[in-house]
Amino acid sequence: MLEFISDDFAVIYNFSPHCSDLLHMVRTPRKGEIMEMHDRCYNFFTRHVIAGGSPDNMEDQIILTYSQSIADALKEGFDFDAVVNNALPAVVYPEGCGMGLHDDLYHNSDDPAKRENVHVFSSVHYLNDDYDGGELLFPDIDLTITPEENMMLLFACHYKHRGNPATNGIKVSSTKFWRDKNADSAV
Question: Which long-range CB contacts under 8 A does 1-4 form with residues at least 24 apart?
Fold first, then answer.
């Protein structure tokens, strides 16, 4: 059930029945799934569903269901038709690591005259909470989110936010950016 913070920001508690499976996938990466960010303290993880996903592969089915569930929540809460990306992306924050102030806008051109944002919504799903700290701050709206395992945040990409460092553990969240299925940039 969506709890609205504003007309373009919502929280869902106990989002996925597969939260522990998703966390297990991140914590047991296959070769090439971790992208170490040498200029940053965090790492990216991505598990892709290959060729539409195998009906016999339980992890593929979990990722497909998970991605569609987020798209369904965006439709229910914001009447937003999202392009569904069938991958499991995650950010792994080692102890003492956070993320600086940023928004999630992404532009499809380096030329400012041709630039249009292709991301409309962000989703952040906390896959664990066995750490201290790690709050997500939205200074422009004076909001602090304390992560809870299986909490999903859905918000417009224009919100500036930053992540406080996690202490006494490793913070793992699945973060996705959602494009409008009906926009020209979605093609």
Answer: 2/73, 2/76, 2/77, 2/154, 4/77
